[in-house]
Every structure is written in C-alpha cells, then in structure tokens.
Amino acid sequence: MVPTARAPSWAILALQLEVNGSLAATYWDPRASVWTFGAAVSLVGGPQTPTFSVIAVNNDGKFYGVVGGTILEYLIDSNNPTRFVFTTSIPLLNNTISAVRA
Question: Distance (Å, rounded) from C-alpha 36 to C-alpha 29?
C-alpha cells in the first residue's frame, strides 16, 4: 500500500535566498493564526552547509537548490516548514541551467 501525503501544518510558505547563499522562511501557521518571518531553514542530510545560487519549490513539498554544478533536492517537513530533508542530487549538464521546452 502506498502511503498518502499528509497535509502540512503550515498554509503558506515563502523562501528567501540570502546574500550568503543560505535560506530564510516566512510562513503562516493556521493552528496558531500567526506569521513567522525570516526563520532560518535547517537542512537535514546532504552536503554540509551548501551555498545556493538558485532555488525553487514545487507543490509536492520539494525544494531544489543549485550548488556549483549540482541540483540538490530536499523534502519540506510537513510538520515544520523550516526543516528540509535531503533526498537526492542531480548533476547539471555542462554546469548550466537551461529551460525545458515542451
């Protein structure tokens, strides 16, 4: 049986790429009816203290960050929007990012 995804405890998540390549999160917690601004993001697993140059997220709760010539993928913890758990890395072809066209 395939486990079903759990709804996150937070409703809105905005990420900021800081000048030093680290991440900050701003999110709305509907349980407490409160905003949290600029919280540091904890990266669990993967390379130690990566310095991101490009970031992205998707609706499946995954975060992607480019470090050097590699895309790092993390799963955003559904209980804690400032905890990202490393899942995999994907090398970039020729160390470049290009748009994929359908």
Answer: 8
| Sequence letter at residue 36 | T
Whole-number Å distance between alpha carbons of 71 and 63: 10
**Cβ neighbours of residue 72 closer than 8 Å, sequence gap 6 or more:** 46, 47, 50, 64, 65, 66, 86, 88, 89
Start-to-end CA distance of the chain, whole Å, equals 33
**CA dist 75 → 11, 21, 25, 45 (Å):** 16, 19, 14, 11
The 10s digit of each residue's pLDDT in 60-97 is: 999 999 998 999 999 999 889 999 999 999 998 776 65
Tell me if the pTM is above 0.85.
Answer: no
